Structure formats: C-alpha cells, structure tokens
Amino acid sequence: MIELINIKKTFNAGRPNEFSAINGVSLSIEANKVTVFKGPSGSGKTTLLSIIGCMTRPTSGRIMLADREVTSLPERFLTGIRRKTFGFIFQQFNLIKGITALENVMLPAYPMGEAYYPLKKRALETLDMFNISNKALSKVEWLSGGETQRIAIARALINIPSVIIADEPTAHLDTKLSHEFMDIISMLKGEGKTILIASHDPLVYESDVVDRIINIRDGMVAEWV
Amino acid sequence: MSYIDKHRNLIDFTLSSLLRRKGKNIALILVYTLVVFILSSVMFFTHAIKKEASIILKDAPEMVVQRVVAGRHDLIPIRYIEKIKGIRGIGLPNARLWGYYFDPIAGANYTLIVPDDFQYGQGDIAIGKGISRSRLAYEGDIMPFMAYDGALINLRIRNVLSPESELVSSDLILISENDFRRIFGISKEYATDLTVKVRNQREINTIVRKITEIYPDTRVITKNEILRTYDAVFNWRGGIVIVIMSGAVMAFIVFAWDKASGLSAEEKKEIGILKAIGWETSDVILMKFWEGAVVSVTSFIAGIILAYFHVFFASSSLFEPVLKGWSVLYPEFKLTPFIDPYQVSTLFFLTVVPYTVATIIPSWRAATIDPDSVMR
Amino acid sequence: MIFHPAIIALLLSSFLITFLILYSSYFGLRIVRKWDIKSGSELQLNLERRTYLISTILAYVLGFQLFSLFLYIYTADNLHSLFVGAMCAAGTLNVNAYGYPTLILKVVNFLLAGLWLILNYTDNRAYDYPLIKKKYVFLLVIALFVTAEMIIQTNYLLRLKADVITSCCGSLFSTDTRGITSEIVALPSIPMKIAFYLGMAFTFVSGICFLKNSKLTGYVFSLASAVTFIISIISLISFISLYFYDLPTHHCPFCILQREYGYIGYLLYITILGGSVLGMGVGVVMPFRDIKSLSEILPSIQRRFAIISLVLYFLFTAVVTYRIVFSDFKLEGY
Ligand SMILES: Nc1ncnc2c1ncn2[C@@H]1O[C@H](COP(=O)(O)OP(=O)(O)OP(=O)(O)O)[C@@H](O)[C@H]1O
Ligand SMILES: [Mg+2]
Fold first, then answer.
1. Which atom from ligand 1 is nearest to the alpha carbon of A47?
2. Which of A110, B8, B354, C261 sits between 20 and 30 A of C177, alpha carbons compared?
3. Residue B90 has what DSSP assignment?
4. Chain A closest CA to C159's CA: distance in Å?
5. Does B226 map to a domain?
6. C77: pLDDT confidence band, cut at 50, 70 and 90?
7. pLDDT tens per residue across span B279-306
C-alpha cells in the first residue's frame, strides 16, 4: 500500500551542520496491518514517519502511495493527500489549549469545507466511540491524561483516514493507559485501518496486535523481524 | 457550498483564537483605533468646515468690488455704483460697510458689519456669542467703543446672535450705518466695498473684465475664488496635519509589523499543530487574513464612530486650535454632521492598507512554519 | 502639490503597491531561474513557500488596485473646485498631461493583476505547476506597469497646482474640440448603439457556444469580451451616459459615479471590469488545455470563468438597456 524507494533525508544540506537523518530506506508497508518502528533515540523514526505521512519531503527517493507517486508533488497537493489519508497522533498529543475538546477534534476538518453541523455531529459521534462525549465542551487543559489521549485519537480520526500514524504514543502514559491505548489500536485495526507506530516501549512492540516490527538504526532499516 | 463553509469555519476559529489572546489583541486594537480616530477626526473636521463655509457663502453675491490704492485695499467711492450699474446682466450693486475693531479689554478683534436691513436703530448693536462670552455682555447691556478720534461711544446690546453657523458669527457685531461711520470716521461718500449680483454664471468673467475696464483702480473678487481659497486653505491644513500625523501612522505600522512577526512560542506551536493535522499553508494565510480583517474592521469602525462623536458632538475639543488658528474668541460651535463614502475610503487607504501591507509578510512567515516541527 | 488627505492616501498606496510588486518580482525572478519541481532541495522548498507569499500579495494588489482606481476618480472629482473651468473629475484629470495616462494605467494594471490571478488559480490546480515560469515572467511585466503607474501618478499629483485653468467634461467630451474623446463623442449614436448591442450579442453567442462544446470558440469568446469591453467604454461616453444624465450633450464618464446618479457608475464599471477580466482570462489559459496535468480540470475552470463573465456582462447590458428604455429622455437619432 505504501512503498518507499531509497528514501534519503538530509538536513541543512551544504552547511557545516549538514546532517543526514535517513540514509536510503526502502520499505513496503501493507494495508490493514500494525507496523512498529523501533530504534534508539535519534535513529530517525520520527523523521521517517513524517516523510511517510507526507509532512516532510525527502531529499531524494520516491514514495508510492496506493500506486501514486507523491514525492514530487508540491506542498498544496501533498497536504490534500495527507489530510485525506493520514491521521496523526503525536507524542505530546499537541491539543490546542484554550478551546474545547470538541473544537480540537473538529479542527482538522475546518479547511476541508465541510458544513459545520454535520461535522459537529460526526465529531460528537467519534467522541462517543471513546466514551468521552461528556467532556466535549470542556477546555482541553482541564482534561486528565487518559482523556487527552482519547481526544487526540478522536482528532486523528475525524477526516476518516485510512492510515493512522502515532509517534511515541505511550511515552507519557502509565501502564494502564498504555494498555488502553493498545486496545484502541486493536479496535482501529479491526475497522480496517493501517497503523504505523514509532516506539521503543516494549509494551507497544510486544503487544499481540503488532504485525511487524521494523528496526531503525542510523537512518537505515537494520533487520527484519 | 463548501467554499463558504470553509470560510465560515475559518472565521469561527479565528474569532475564538483572537478571544483567546485578548491581551495582545486588545493592545493592538486600541492603538489602531486611536490612529483611525485621530486621522478621521482631522478629516471630518476639515470637511465639515469646508461645508460650513460654503453654506455661509451660499447666498453671498457673486462678486465683490474693492478699490485698491498702492496695492492695498482702500475705501471705495459710492459713486462708482453709477457706472457699474450700467453693465448688462447684473443686479443693482450694493455698497457694504464693514471692518475690524480691536477691543483692548478682551484683547480681541471684532468684525463690525452694517447689514442692509439692520433691525435696530442708531445706538443699538447685536453681538456674536463669542463676544458675549468673553465680555460677559448680554442683551440690554451697554458696550463702549472708542471712535477714531478718541471719543467714547456707548452702544446698547439689543441681541446676542445665534445663527446657523457660529464659525463666522462668533466675533461679529451688527451695527447701524451712522454708528459705524462715527466710530471709524468714514464719510458718506465712501463704503468698504461693493457687491454685485450676477444673473448668469457664464457671464461672470465678462463682467469682471468690464468692471476693471471702467475702473482700473478696482479689484473684483468672485465668490468662486473665495470658495476655492477656503477649500485650499482647509485642505492644506488638513493635509499638513496628516503629514505630521504620518509619523504616528509610521509608528503604528512598525508596531503592527512587530506584533505580527513577534509570535509567541505558543502561537508558533499552535500554527505548527494546525499544519500537522492537515491545514495547508494557504489555509493558515487565509486564517491570518480573517484575523487582520477582524482587527481592522473593528478598529476602523470604532475609530470612525469615536471621531464622529468627537467632531460633531464634542466640538473637536482635542485640536480645534491647530486647525482654526488661535483666536481669543474661539467659537464653540457645533458642525453639521456630515460624512461621505469618499472620506471613509481615504481613511481606509491611510490606515487599513498600510496595516495590511505591514502584516502580509509576517503572516506568511507564520504560515510557513514546518508541520513536522511539532513532532519533536 | 496640494496637501489633500486623499492625495496623500493615493501616493502612499501606490508606493506600497509598487514596493510589494517589486519585492515579489525579485523572488519571481529567482523562481524563473531556479525552479525545479523534481528537487527536494531546501532551495526548492523555499521557492515553493515564496509562491504562497506572492499569490497573497497579488490578491491584495488586485483589491487595492480596484479601490485606488475609484479613489483616484473620486479625488479628481472632489478637487475640481480648485481648478478654474473644472466641473468634475474630467477637468481635474486634464490639469496636466499625466492625469489621463494614470487613469488608463490604473485600469490596465487592474486587468493585468486579474489575469495574473487567473493564471495562478489555474496553475495551482495542476500538481506539477506547469505554468509557473510563464506566470512569473508575466509578473515581471506587471511590475513594469505598476512602477510606471506609480511614477506617472506621482508626477500628476505633485504637479497639481490650484487655480490652473483647465477644460472639463463640457468641452472635453464634446464635439467642438479635437482629439480622441471628441471623436468618440461625435460618433453617431445609432450605429454606436448597434455596435454595442452587436458586440454584446456576439460575446453571448460565442460564450454560450463555448459553454456548450468548449472547443476553440474559447478564443473567440475571449477576444469578443475584450473588444466588447472597449466598445462598452466608448459607448458609455458616446451615448449611455446621456441617458443617465438626461442631457443630450453631457458625455462625461465620471459624473455617473456621483451620488446624484445613485452611484450607478460603480455598478457599471465593476460589472464591465470584472466581466472583461474573466472573459479575457478564458482565452489566456486556452493554450494550456493540452498540458496533461491541466487537461482534466481546465475546461471546468474556464466554464466557471465564462459563466461569471457572461453574468456580469449581462448585468451591465441589463442596467444600460433598462435606463435607455425607461428614461424619459429620448436621444434623437443622428
Ligand atoms: N530539522 C532538523 N534539522 C537538523 N537535524 C534534525 C532535524 N530534525 C531531526 N534532526 C536530526 O535527525 C536525527 C533523527 O531525528 P528523529 O527525531 O527522527 O529521531 P527519533 O528516532 O525519532 O528519536 P527519538 O526516539 O528520540 O524520538 C536526530 O539526530 C535529529 O537531531
Ligand atoms: Mg522521535
């Protein structure tokens, strides 16, 4: 479904602080599977995920997304594809403070030009799925860690993406919440989503739902598991 | 209509973001409003004054004939009327008496005019509000005048004028012909100037030429020239004030630029998040556009409304002295409220356009924050 | 110079617009030279980002340009009392040799900015930005025109001196004097009316043909709308204005912008300017229909432009016709 061909990413090219974060990664990722990227800090997991998620353009190499070549697309089109295909869950969850949970969930859909009320209804339904619709109108800074996490997942789902990308989703969670997170992941997998996770948390990569683990080291794929 | 829904959603979010950062935005809106307020006060004021002047001159005769001696305005012999009368296309010329009188007590110049149809008799006067205020003189009081030969002449105030425009009547005294001639020692044969009414506007230039041919020692001033001079003088003053004010506008622009480019870490993060969850650069630019539009519209309207009250209901108390010259008998008049789309669009160009230009580049910079910046 | 607030506003805005355009064309030049969509280099990413800035700037410039066109006419109108012989904008613009060239440049620059935005709109819908270099070369041309406008307008405004004797619409737009305007005014009204309605009819027919089969008639429609724009402006001076003034000799194209005539001139000018930009836009993007990335989307974009253009032209014609039919004033055919 997603195919990476010899992806390289160099930061600050041509300057003294030039740094090559990804050095030729070729991969193919199947649909409806849970794939975990594992590797030491600084190995390039986040960079790779943001390249796969069309957030960053690689310096060279090609990405095929459902047989469409996306690497040479300008940002305008890349974003168009990204917001229909990918839902992101960030390490810090990155909710916007000062507005309600509901608004946070609806935010990714605003520029898509959807009418407000149908969108709101869908957002409430998504929150309902995670049993937090009673918190819809609370400001996000008052929510507990677990609630915040579920809001973040609801936000990733609002545009009905086929791929969910999560970067270190359990880093700030205790064991109980981490288990809860993995349960949600398995539920999403059941719904047919493709899931990519970067993590070095054993609780994640040793979980039963994980189909495949990819080891990353120094910006390269180290071994197949 | 997905296009409209998109804008609605973005405006919705923009408003909620503006409210979330009240402190920063209120400061900006206050300064912005102040700038609009000052500029629009100047413009409304000069414009209304020009209007006022044209109201005064509405019924004035088309031309005034003065005699010039050695390059200076001099008394005109009344017999000049005889020959001028003969020119085709004019009404009967009228001899006017008017002049200035310096009052050492108030330290001010009064304008003395002998009206054609003076309602009161010899020994009576009517005075303007300004004189009444400064001399504390009211109806029935006696006001002494010093004649040209040192003699003291007491005149009784019969009326305090309250005409439609106080601008010119504030320092005005209406007086009878005999009293006027006594105070200034002007003999019966002379008047200050002559006025001539013209029936057909197109003939004004011809008539002016004829008069100066008959009496080469006269100068003819037409009403249009007076209006033009008024216009020029007030435009000029308004313009000068705006040039001076441009310093303030400049400062405001720098302030706006600074506000727009000095994003807090939190705002940067917020935009990063928006982009990471699927907003495109042009969506963020659009949001910034709405943000600027909301700020501009709010301040612009607030500034204009405040200026409107300032000029038309509070007598422009803040800067009348600058615009009208420093007269002791400074009139406290109410201008007729008047505002037109033209003034509003000029103000728009002087304030909103520079503000917008100052914020385009900073907004764009903010909008191009890398989406992946929030991933680390 | 006359220190009038509106003059200061006009000067200020033209400096700002010129600054923005020159700033954009600096980056436009770099895009023309360095653009390589295949590359993922940081230079390319930067250039791509700049395109957002330049689009935004041009969108603002288009708006400001339209506004400043009307402010310019309005100011000229407002200042007429300062000049002997001037009764409205026509006289003030004639005070020195730069008045009318500025006006024409303002119209031209509005049209150019509009066409640029149409190109840009089209280009941004194709995933490989096929028009990018053409677009930015065109931007350099616009920069020249905008700078020229700034220089000429500054000349005009700084050289305005009160009390200059000028001639106004009465003589400028009359048959007595020589020059292009009197030629226009002297045009016989019935053939002119026929030309106007024929032009409009032709534009509509070609527009509808274009909408039906969207083949090469696009060029015809585009050309027709450009020609009709010019005919309409000439008609405005030649006979349309007469019906709005109810006067057989008043040919001024500016007085209709005044309050006495219900600001109807704004409606007329905005519809005809908008209609012609969009109509010409259809032709400007016509050669790019064969580009692979555009071939699917361009026809629908062109259709949209053509429809809006036709609606605007229709509005213009409707207002004019309504006035001609229902005005008490009868222009005796000559
Ligand atoms: N914008 C950038 N400019 C320069 N260097 C960068 C940039 N982004 C990432 N890097 C570098 O690229 C390398 C890979 O970073 P990345 O965030 O992908 O690692 P990671 O595997 O996600 O690490 P962690 O497990 O700590 O999150 C790091 O050494 C980082 O310093
Ligand atoms: Mg990481």
1. 18
2. C261
3. B
4. 48
5. no
6. confident
7. 999 999 999 999 999 999 999 999 999 9
**Distance (Å, rounded) from C-alpha B201 to C-alpha B320?**
35
Q: Residue B234: its pLDDT value, please?
A: 66
Name the residue among B280, B282, A73 with its Cα closest to residue C128: A73
Asked whether residue B236 falls in the same domain as residue B344, the answer is: yes
For A52-121, give the DSSP string: HTTSS--SEEEEEETTEE-TTS-HHHHHHHHHHHEEEE-TT--PPTTSBHHHHHHGGGGGGT--HHHHHH
Q: Are residues B236 and B148 in the same domain?
A: no
Domain limits for position B258: 3-57+231-375
pLDDT 10s digits, B14-57:
998 888 888 888 989 999 999 999 888 888 887 777 777 777 66
B348 neighbors B324 (Cβ within 8 angstroms):
no
Tell me how many domains chain B contains.
2
Residues B81 and B209 in one domain: yes
Look at residues B221, B256, B290 and tell me which one is the last residue of a structural domain. Answer: B221
How close is the nearest chain B Cα to the Cα of C296, in Å? 21
Nearest-10 Cα torsion for B146, B151, B156, B162: -20
In a 13 Å sphere around the CA of A172, the CA atoms on its Cβ side amount to: 14
pLDDT of residue C180: 64
Interface check for A112 against chain C (CB to CB < 8 A): the answer is no
Q: Is A92 in the pocket of ligand 1 (CB under 6 A)?
A: no
Question: At B155, which CATH number?
Answer: 2.40.40.20
* Alpha-carbon distances of B342 from A53, A204, C15, rounded to whole Å: 52, 67, 20
Distance from Cα A165 to the centre of ligand 2, integer Å:
12
Using CB atoms, list chains with 3+ pairs below 8 Å to chain B.
Answer: A, C
Q: Which residue has the higher pLDDT, B152 or C186?
A: B152
CB B193 within 8 A of CB B96: yes
Residues B88 and B166 in one domain: yes
Q: Can you point out the beta strands (E) in chain B?
A: 63-69, 72-74, 76-77, 94-103, 108-114, 124-127, 142-146, 152-160, 172-175, 190-191, 193-196, 218-222
| Atom 25 in ligand 1: residue holding the nearest Cα | A41
Query: Which amino acid residue places its CA nearest to atom 24 of ligand 1?
Result: A41
Mean pLDDT of B53-77: 78
Mutate to test the pocket of ligand 1, among A8, A19, A172 (most ligand atoms within 8 A of CB): A19
Do B205 and B75 belong to one domain? yes
Select from A50, A95, A111 the Cβ nearest to the Cβ of B283: A111
Contact A155 B277 (CB under 8 A): yes
- Among chain B residues, CA nearest to C13: B349
> In this prediction, what percent of chain B has a pLDDT beyond 70?
87
From chain A residues 75-134, the ones with a CB under 8 A of any chain B CB are 75-76, 79-80, 82-83, 88, 90-92, 94-99, 103, 107-116, 119
Instruction: Name which of B13, B270, B375 is nearest A46 (Cβ-Cβ).
Output: B375
Residues B72 and B217 in one domain: yes
CB within 8 A of A101, min separation 6: which ones?
A: A95, A127, A132, A135, A136, A137, A138, A139, A140, A143, A147, A151
Helix axes B2-20, B22-57, angle to 10 degrees: 100
Please report the ipTM that was assigned to this predicted complex: 0.92
Examine the pLDDT at B148 and tell me if it is beyond 50: yes
Specify whether the CB–CB gap between B211 and B87 falls below 8 A: yes
Residues 44-83 of A with CB under 8 A from C: 57-60, 71-77
- DSSP three-state, residue B329: coil
Highest average pLDDT, of A211-220, B122-131, C80-89, C165-174, comes from: A211-220
DSSP labels, B164-224:
S-HHHHTTEEEE-HHHHHHHHT--TTEESEEEE-BS-GGGHHHHHHHHHHH-TTEEEEEHH
Residues B89/B198, Cβ–Cβ less than 8 Å = yes
What's the pTM value of the predicted model, to 2 decimals?
0.82
